[in-house]
Amino acid sequence: MRFTLLLFILYHILKRAVKKNAAFRSYIGAIHNVRVMIKTADGKRGRVFIFDRGGLKSRSGATHPYDVAIVWSDPGTAFRVLSSQSDEQQFLAAAAGKMKIDGMAFFAQWFNDGVKLVM
Amino acid sequence: MALINGGHLVGKYLKQVENVDIVFGISGGHIESMLDGFTEYKIRTIDVRHEQAAAMMAHAWSVYTGRPGVCFLTAGPGFTNGLTGIANAYLDNAPMVVLCGRHPLRDDLTGALQELNQMDIVKPMTKWAATCYDTKRIPEYLSIAFRQAMEGRPGPVFLELPPDILNVKVEESQAPKPSRATRKYTVHPDDADLKNAADIINGAKKPLFLGGTGIGFSACAEQLRAFVDKSGIPFMLLNNGRGELPDTHPLSIWDAGNIGMMVTIQQADVIVSAGLRFNWILQSGKIIPPATKLVRIDIDPHEVDRNRTADAGLVGDAGSVLKQLTPLVQKRDHSEWLKTLRAASRSMLDYEIRTRENPSDPIHPIRLAAQIRSVTGEDAMYVADGGDTVYFGLTGFMSKHRAGVIGTSSGLLGCLGTGIPFAMAAKLAYPDRNVVLLNGDGSFGFNSMEFDTMVRHNIPILCVVNNDCAWGMIKHSQELSIGADRLQCSELGTRRYEKMVEGLGGHGEFVTRDEDIVPALERAIASGKPACVNVMTDPTVTSPATPLFYQSLKME
After folding, report:
1. CA 20 to 30 Å from B550, out of B92, B203, B315, B414?
2. Cβ-nearest to A29 among B259, B349, B554
3. Is the alpha carbon torsion for B285, B296, B184, B226 positive or negative?
4. Are B556 and A104 within 8 A, CB to CB?
5. Is A1's pLDDT higher than 80?
6. What H or E segment, with its residue span, contains residue B61?
7. Overall average pLDDT of the B130-157 stretch
8. CA-closest candidate to residue B28, choices B143, B134, B162, B170
9. Which tens digit of pLDDT belongs to each residue from A9-43?
10. Are A102 and A71 in contact (CB under 8 A)?
């Protein structure tokens, strides 16, 4: 539940940044239809973020198509690591096999770097 | 009294002083006596079908042998055709000697055939360029050319030889040759700088060593092995430095791929970089977090603080510097850090690893590279050329050989079409090894007529075309920037490139299914001919290099 709420809050932070944060707006630019999914491995929880021509849409759920998915072993780990906002924690989670990337890894890094701009 | 003409003086110098036994080019009227000089002194000539291939082969020869490659160009269009290869060698810091004809001095400003101010065109893309005006001084000019190509930071040099110089005879004793070949001199860093660097390295908890082309041209496998084995630092060798130690060395992290490298760079507390420019691929150094300590080794002092101020800068030939640095570093074991970064990288590469291991329809290029590797193994020399294709080759292939995996189009010029000339040079340098080129279908078009050269000169490379019917990187970048419904000049058709190769006398295979890849490769190798295996791959697939490319050109 906390993980789902965190993703929902993240969506609203990014949605606001698209409108108000010039650095973030510039960062995402006019990129066409890049879909970043954050979800749990069991597919029960997730949210997709869709960046398209300067706008952002998002949908709850783990079954939407994506270009890259950041897949967490469980919602507790996901919440702990994501809320820490620490690159090192993400790295260690990956090393422990608790976070994996499916699809275009570059976009995961791109998404994380964008999030850093608004946090 | 012994008379010799200028063209023969060139051949004699190349053979007897610099031990050059192979040169690359196309014939031309302005350079006839030089061609005869090659015959006279038994220098093998590889005559290609476009001069850019000659320049690229000479460049490649330097990468594979460590000695300057030599190409010859005739005046005018021969010269202009060679420029792309010269520019590529310049941005790659490759020692190459270009011998070029020109219109006669006698006919200056008369509207002579192929009269062109070649010097002003070529100077910005060479380390040194000159015209020889005196036949007797040809050996002296050649000696300068080789020194300029080799000494310090290497690079291409250009020597213009007019017919008035090449086609006249002089008394040989009046054209003295240097007593020995060009040799490479080294300089050493200051002791205090070495100690500073060693202190930083000895204090590292999560170090990473990155080596570039400077490692390759230093030919410093022995010194590098001693350094990494003692310091215990995980390493990755890039560009033309790859393979100076085998990709399979226990401390090499090539199994983590480029993505693993990018992630590791951001977690390392100390980075030791040798012979590697921090260019756009490394986001001009911005990828390295501000708190990370940086030890930088480079033969060019201007590189040491470029794009990122080094905490310790060591100027000199990479091998020489490492030899001095190793006694000062402490014996360390970073195996836990290595284990962690490998495990993290594996999670990041989860998708690629699964793709590698599983057949797909249409064929995924990652799977294609894995299937190639399953046939030719780590004893082959691999070349990759293209946009996305170069990523799939660099991450999919492993070799135990020096320069065993080269992404020819991933240099600073981003020069597509380099794969075929590089593969040809690799086969000439190592005739007993399989040479495999993974070529994008777009880049294949630039130099594919060189299959004729391969047939004439018996250079049996294996070229596998990753055929996605597009300039894939451009197409997928356009999908990000201007939208999939407005693609422009980025799509190609389904073409039977293997039939073109068959028509030129080579071996061709056409593959559309995963299960046919390996048999087709085996038949191609068994043919003993220059071979093209044309593999239709998934046109929707893109590589992580494409968004990086897109991002680098996003201006607002």
Report:
1. B92
2. B554
3. negative
4. no
5. no
6. helix B51-65
7. 97
8. B162
9. 999 999 999 999 999 999 999 999 999 999 999 99
10. yes
The pLDDT of residue B552 = 83
Report A:55-94 residues touching B (Cβ under 8 A). 87-88, 91-92, 94
Using a pLDDT cut of 90, give the percent of chain B over it. 93
- CATH superfamily entry for domain A2-118: SCP2 sterol-binding domain (3.30.1050.10)
Is there a contact between A106 and B548 if contact means CB atoms under 8 Å apart? yes
**Cα(A50)–Cα(A66) distance, rounded to whole angstroms?**
9
Question: Closest approach of chain B CAs to the CA of A1, in angstroms?
Answer: 25
pLDDT in tens, B404-434: 999 999 999 999 999 999 999 999 999 999 9
Question: What does the angle CA B97 – CA B85 – CA B502 come to, to the nearest 5 degrees?
Answer: 115
Q: What totals of helices (H) and strands (E) does chain A contain, helices first?
A: 5, 5
Three-state secondary structure of B507-552: EEEEECCHHHHHHHHHHHHHHCCCEEEEEEECCCCCCCHHHHHHHH
Q: Do A87 and B267 lie within an 8 Å CB cutoff? A: yes
Instruction: Choose the closest CB to B347 out of A33, A34, A99.
Output: A99
A44 phi, psi to nearest 5 deg: -85, -25
Which whole number is the average pLDDT over B270-279? Answer: 96
Percent of chain B surpassing pLDDT 70: 100
Tens digit of pLDDT for each residue in B349-397?
Answer: 999 999 999 999 999 999 999 999 999 999 999 999 999 999 999 999 9
Q: What is the pLDDT of residue B228?
A: 98
User: What distance in Å separates the CA atoms of residue B46 and residue B25, rounded to the nearest whole number?
Assistant: 6
Pair B384, B404: CB distance under 8 Å: no
pLDDT of res. B518: 98
Mean pLDDT in residue range B120-139? 98
The answer to whether B464 touches B521, Cβ cutoff 8 Å, is: yes
Spacing of C-alpha B177 from chain mean position: 31
Which residue blocks in B190-241 are alpha helix, DSSP H? 191-202, 213-218, 221-231
Check residue B515 and give its pLDDT.
98
Count of pairs with CB atoms under 8 A, one residue in A, one in B = 70
Residue B59 scores a pLDDT above 90: yes
Whether B344 sits inside 8 A of A92 (CB atoms) is yes
Residue A36 β-bridge partners: A49, A68
Q: Which domains does chain B have, with CATH numbers?
A: 3-174 (3.40.50.970), 191-345 (3.40.50.1220), 352-552 (3.40.50.970)
Nearest CA in chain A to B264: A91
Overall average pLDDT of the B304-311 stretch: 96
Other C-beta atoms within 10 Å of B117: how many? 8
User: What rounded mean pLDDT belongs to chain B?
Assistant: 96
pLDDT of residue B292: 98
* Spatial CB neighbours of A70, under 8 Å, sequence gap ≥ 6: A36, A37, A38, A39, A99, A101, A108, A111
Interface test with A, best of B339, B348, B392, B473 (most A CBs within 10 A): B348
Q: Name the pTM for this structure.
A: 0.96
Average the pLDDT over B296-319 and give the result: 96
* Chain A residues touching residue B483 (CB < 8 angstroms): 32
Q: 3-state SS of chain A: helix, strand, coil percent to 5?
A: 50, 25, 25
* Number of helical (H) and strand (E) elements in chain B, helices listed first: 24, 19
Q: Work out the minimum CA distance from A32 to partner chain B, whole angstroms.
A: 5
Residue by residue, DSSP assigns B447-461 as HTTHHHHHHHHT---
